[in-house]
Each structure stands twice: as C-alpha cells, then as structure tokens.
Target: Solute carrier family 12 member 3
Amino acid sequence: MDAAALSARSGKYTVSPVGSEKESKFHFDGGDKYYYNGDVNSVASTRSEAFSGYNTLDTPPNYQFYSNTEVHGRSRKARPSLFQLHSILQEDGLAPPLYEEANGIPHGDSSEDEEETEPPVEPTRFGWVQGVMVRCMLNIWGVILYLRLPWITAQAGIGLTWIIILLSSCITGITGLSTSAIATNGKVKGGGTYFLISRSLGPELGGSIGLIFAFANAVAVAMHTVGFAETVQVLMQENGAMMVDRLNDIRIIGVITVTCLLAISLAGMEWESKAQVLFFLVIMVSFASYIVGTIIPATPQKQSKGFFSYKADIFAANFVPGWRGAEGSFFSMFSIFFPSATGILAGANISGDLKDPAVAIPRGTLLAIFWTTMSYLIICVTIGSCVVRDASGNLNDSLAISNSTSCVGLACRYDWDFSECINNRTCTYGIINYYQSMSMVSAFGPLITAGIFGATLSSALACLVSAPKVFQCLCKDNLYPGIGFFGKGYGKNDEPIRGYLLAYIIAVCFILIAELNTIAPIISNFFLCSYALINFSCFHASVTNSPGWRPSFRYYSKWTSLVGAIVSVVIMFLLTWWAALIAIGIILFLLAYVLYKKPNVNWGSSVQASSYNMALSHSVGLNHIEDHIKNYRPQCLVLSGPPSSRPAMVDFVSTFTKNLSLMMCGNVVTGGPSTAATEAACSSSHVTWLNKRQVKSFYRGVVADDLRSGVQMLLQATGLGRIKPNVLVLGFKKNWRKDRPCCLENYIGIIHDAFDLQFGVCILRMKEGLDMSSTMQTHVNPGFEMSIEQGHSNGGLSMVPVSQLTFCAISVTVDTDISDTIPQLRTVFQSRQGKKTIDVYWLSDDGGLTLLLPYLLTRKKRWGRCKVRVFVGGDIQQMDEQKKEMLALLNKFRLGFHEVQVLTDINEKPRPEHVKRFEELLAPYKLSAKHKDEQSDGLLSESCPWTVSDEDLERNKAKSLRQIRLNEILLDYSRDAALIITTMPVGRRGACPSALYMAWLDILSCDLRPPVLLVRGNQENVLTFYCQ
Model:
C-alpha cells in the first residue's frame, strides 16, 4: 500500500501511517488540513491554497503562531514543524513535535470529550483617557499646586518659575518618551514600572526598583492622606472644633480616610476609576473658579490682601526674582516644586488593566504631562499678574483713609498703602506670605479647598492602587523569598486583595507617625530612581542594537534618554543628598541579593544583548592580537559525552580551567540526521547540569555517522576566532579488549587526528572508571532506549549499549524534562586533596604542557597544599648534575617546583611477569598463520588495521618495554600520590597498529590507585622564562 495516494481529479492527497486507527496520531485529508489527535484546527493549512496557489502543508502567516494566549472556545492553530514539512512520516506512533506551545502542552493535543466550559468573565479594561491620562493628571496635581506654586512664583519670579516648571517637565517628558518606547516594544502585561524595567534591564535592577517603588507608593498613600487630614484639621480648628488634640486628630482623620480609600479599591477597578473621575471633575471646577476669580473685578477685601486683577506693572514686578529667607535660591525652589511634577507613572502602573497598553501609555502619559505643564504655567503667570508680593489685609490701609505721603510698594499705584508691614516685614498677605492665595483669588474660595481635597485623595487613591499592582507582578516572578503569598489575585481583574491589605497596613503605620518630613525626601528619591532606570533602560536597549528592540513609538532618542537618566540622579542629590544615598544603598543591596541568587528567568533583557555585544567585540578584537607564549592557556575540548555521564572528568578539567581558559564539553550522537538525534545532541539539559554543578564550560553536541567523524567535526569547528580548543581531553577506553576492534581503531584514530591538527592530548584514567551512565539509568527516557538493530530498522537514532560504547558516544539518555532531577554525583576532584603529592613524570619534552597543568592545579584551593614532585630519566653517573640542571630550568620557569628526582633505573628491563601480561593483552590482536599471506598482499592492513604482526612487535620492542618498566616505577614511587601526570607515548601512524598503541597506554597506567593523566603537548613551547 502506498504512503500517499494522489487523486488526479481533485489534486488532493492523503498521507496516513500504516497501522491501526488507534496508533495513527496524525494524517492528511483531501481538505488540505492536517489532523492531530482528532483536533482539526491544531495544525492547519486551511486557505493555504488560496494564499499560495498550491496544495501544501505550509500555512500563511497567522497571529496565533506568535501569540502565547488562547481564546476561549477556539482551538489555537500552530504552524507545522520543520519535521512535518521536511521529514518522511514514519510508522512510530509518535506525534511529530510542534514548535508552538502554550502552558507546556503541545497545541492540538486536545480531547474530543472535553466538556464545554463557560467563557471567563471579561475583566474591566480602560482606555487611554480614563485609564492613563486622567489618572496621571490627578497624581501629578497635588497640594503644591494650590499651596506652594504662588509662593514659588513670588520667590523666583515668573521667569525663573517658568524655567523651573519647564525643566521639571522636560525631565518627566523625557521619561514619558522612554516609557512610551519601552511600552511599545512588545505586549505589556500587569506590573507597570516594575514590568517595564525588569523586562528591559533584567531581574536584577527590575526586582530592586520594583520592591522599593511598591513600598514608596504605599508610603505615599500615607503622605497624601496626612496632607488631607491636616487640611481638615485646620478647617476644624478655624471653626472651633477638635476631637482630642492636633496630632491625634490628624491620626484619626487619616486612618478613617485611608480606610474609606481601601474600601473603594476593594470594590474593584470600576469603582476606583469612577472615584478618580469625580475627583478630576472637582479639580476642574476649582480651576474654573480660580480663572473666573482672576477676571472679575477685585473687591476691597481682596485688594487689601494684594489682589488687583490683571495689571501690567504687577506682572513686570513679579517677573523678576524676589528671594527671601534661607530657602531663597533657585535650587531650593526647584527641589520644592519638582515633586509636584512626578506621578507620570500612575497610568503605566495599572498596565494590566488597560485595553491596549502600547497605545494608552504613550498617548495618555504624554498628554497628561502636556496638560499639567500648561496648567502650572497658566497659574504661575495669572497669579503673578494679579497679586502683589506683600499686603497687610487691613482695610484701613487704603490711601483714601491714611493720607500717607511716603507710600512704599507697588500697591501705592492702586490707592493702597502697605508701607508699614513692608518696612517691618509683618505682612501676612500677598503671594509671598499667604499660602492660600489661590483660594483668596478664586471666585468661590471653598472650591479651592475642594480641589485640595480632590488632589490629595486622588493621589492617595492612585498610589493605593499602584503599589499592590506593582507588588503583585513582583511576587509572581519569585525574585525574593517570602513574598509569593501576596501575589494571589482574585476576581475577573485578578485583584491583589492581599496586596491591598499590605499597602493599607503600611500606610496606617506611617499615618500614625503623623510626621513624614524625614520620609518624604526618601520617597521622592525612590520615584527619581525609577525615572533614572526607565531612561537608562531605553538608552541601554537602543545602544545594544538588539534586533528585538523595535518599539512602534519612534519619537525618542537614546541620547535624550541618557541625559534624562543622569539629570534624574543629579536631582536626587540636589533634593536631599542623604536620602539619595539611602535610596541608592537599598537598590544596591537588593541588586546584590538577586545577583547572588541568580533567579531562573529569561526575559530577553538588554543586559543580555549587551553581554553578547561585548563578548562578540572582544572576541573579534583578539583577531588583531598575535598569540604569545606568555598568554598560552590550555583550552580544553573534553570528550565527555553527556557531561553528567562522566562527572569526574568534567570536575577535573574544570579545576584548572575555571576562570582561566576555555572548557568545551563535546558530545557525539551517532546515527543519521533525525529530530531525535538533533534533540539529543542539542538538549539544554546538559548545559543545565553544568550550570547547576557550577562548572564554567560550554557544551557542543554534534550528530555524525560514526564517532570518529563526529570528533573530527568538534576538533575543527568548535571555538570562536582565537578562543578555540588546543588540548583534547578524553577518558581512557577501559573496555577496549571487549569492544569491537573498529571502535578501538576509531579511538586511536581520534588521537592521531588530534595530533594532525596540532592539538595537545590528555587521557584521564581512574581505577573505578569514568563512565557513570549506569548510575543514571533511573533517569533515562524510555522513549530513547532501543537496541542497535531496532535503531537501524526504524531508520532512527542508533543507540549503542554502554558496554559497546566508547568514551563519548553515549548518545543520549537524558530527558530534557527531567534534567533537574539528574543527581549531582560527588567525585574525588570536588574534595580538598590535603598534604599529598602530585607526581609529574616529565620523561619527554612536549613543550611544557606536562609541567603547566600541575602548576595550574596547585593554584586552586583544593590542590593548594599538594607538593609537586618532578621525575626525570637519567644516568646514575651524572645524577647530581642532571638534577641541578632540571632544578635550574624549573626555577627559570618560576613554577615553584623544588623537588626533583632522577630515575636512574628507568632503562632497566621490566620483570618477566609484567612482560607476559603485556603479551596477553595483545594476544587477541596478533596475526595468526593463516592471515600472514593476506598481510603480505597488503589486504589485511586495510581491512583490519588493528592487527599486530611480529614485525610490528619487533620494530617497537624497545618502546613497549619502556612502558612496562615505567608502570613498575609508578607503582614503586607514586602509590600514595593524589595525582600522577606522566608523558604519553606517541605511536607513529602506519608503523604502530592501534592495538599495540592501546596496549602501551593500558600497561603504562594499569593497577594504579591514584588518578593518572597521560599528557602529550603539540611539541610547541607553552612555557618561557623570557619577559617578552
């Protein structure tokens, strides 16, 4: 039966795996749709024919392919994977992998029996006017607008006050532009300022600023509430009403007020938004009352207090500064006014409750900054054109009554004489003396009081909502311990009720203090920290040139963002230098904690992009620097297979490469190209295991037809520029006599390939072995377990049993889903070695690699107490001279090795029983009589290059005996050493069969309790005693 049947009439095709209906998990039908697990819509190319003109599994672009959210009642589509488009569908009963996943479940894996559920209730969402602009304007306007702006105008003059207002608005405007750019660079979720900074700069800075920003908002609730309570207490006092005393009255009114605000917040965002609209209308009415009051003619009562309607000479007099008192300076006025320009993040803080944050945040925030700036400028110029600086408020000071001839002050032109109070500096009215000047000018004074109430309560309510919203997002990210409890949401809007209660408790605690003069500067500095980091986030994301930085909002500049960040920090110190230091100190402490904990999150931050840029720039820069012996580092390619299968070898190499040089763990997966093989080679579980073990190593997996070709790929292709391996590290092939001869040939061939490519070679042997894969069997993915025959018959990944596997061909048994459960087996190289010895047998000069490795080991704490002993071959007659020569050479190398022993008996004959054991090792590989004819024809050397002839043994007899004798010396001198490092013999290609070479390596390192490292450099110097 054919796999695909083509209908000539319809042009449609059908592909279905052979097997039962139950086993078939996917098929195509004549409708040009791909069915998987019964879900028609899971992967569909519906309308692809209309789109492209052809019948194809390829699908046209679709929004759902890129979205992480699902629509209730509608199955999500997922684009077909490359496997589905490229590979032949096989009868394995396994569903092909899909790229698009949601909540860890492949799309299309749905059940037909799934019960219909009610669609979730749609949460309340706000547009840019009600959700952002109104909220930001209410948070920006405050008591400073009503009670301090006229006074600042009198001190600094209209001209400098405009500069103060415009400078403050420039800072907030730049921050608004940066916020708009970040908010339009992808879909924004709940969390406001914390979400924007953390997803841009990463969890380290984002987490620290999110925590203090949420706390600052909670304390700001108390500040605004106390401001409201103080105003109410003053009104009560003026009318002769008092509950207890001034301080307790403020506490009582404040607690009652914040409780009412909490009730509004708990009622839901709809009620909170309606309350904000009501406050907005009250403030608008108070503004209208003020403007009308400036236009209507002044009454004698208002004239006595300094109000004369619009006059050009009053404007001229108030245009220039009139500094008075200790606070009479530009920066003092700026520090007092600037907090009234903050509050621009109130809309962004409820980003999760906006219909379209990417549109609402830029439009609403920038318009709020514009309209509030205009309101400040208008009030400044109008109050400065209508009211003189000094007035007595006494109706008897009219010139018509006093008939004074020596009148002082601008009011003299309008028939008022305030000379006495001006000269005595006892004036109680005028914009420089009377904070309630706006109420005095207003057409109806109580409306200004209502405006003050609206401004303070709206700001308190906005902060009470912002703090829990920001804190909830922070809690869900689990960056800090013990705060996850407050992240739970309730209702259709996912309201953080626990967060509301926490913010309420914090606010009440500070309200009970009833004196926030020392805390207010810290809060202002926390807000400025947020502004600085938002501006820096925009600058950093722009300067890294990450392809992922594509904000749809284009009206920003990275340099203006940088200026905004710097100016924000400068203003922090101008406001209160000690509060700035406290704020920065707290941020650095929280930053250090997150850096230490290293949370497992990946948000694609600009810090990651910057790290990549820096690494790439430095790597390319190395191309302009020639290699020098002084800068030589052993950069190791470790043929570990899956690193978790050979932890001892990984730990050992990591000991001398950590923070010093490159370490690359290589893994060769044998078999033809397939999805399973690629996933096995490139599984992230290997890197996860290395990171969890705190091993600073790269990982590289390749898929190859056989082991040797895979290692050739690694030897030639791994690395980047000059950061590439120069030493190959592999484990000793302990089962070489039991394994197939072709595997032995591959193993020795890999060593020859490394020498051909000018690599140094190190072979590590331990008595208990290196392969721990048997310990990992409980963590093996059963889906990968198959025999060699099954692997080839199914055309899939060929799995070789461990007993038949060489050092790095364990293709993969670790499942990525359970990588976190792989045990971290402890090895001898993770322990302190104590006062033992590292015995170095430097018998052949390989350039110095044999000496450099023990020196690097002794620089580490685990090996620092070990003494290095260097053994060299020599003659008994010249033993003292040879020892002095070697000590002199070692001293010139400055390695710190001071003990040298000359082996005068190294050239003696080995014991007969050891020679016999060596012969027994080679017995299975020696040529028999019937094979000698084939050898003479040259056929055997091509088909069985591992065989050993009598000529081979005779030609290499001296070298064989030397390895046997050297093993006897190692047993005599180094039984109790912590590590033995010895020169590795080199077998000449074509003259030394692979079995003979393997027997040398085996007999040299056998029966030794300590770990043995066979080392052979590439015969080029890696040590020098010159300084240039």
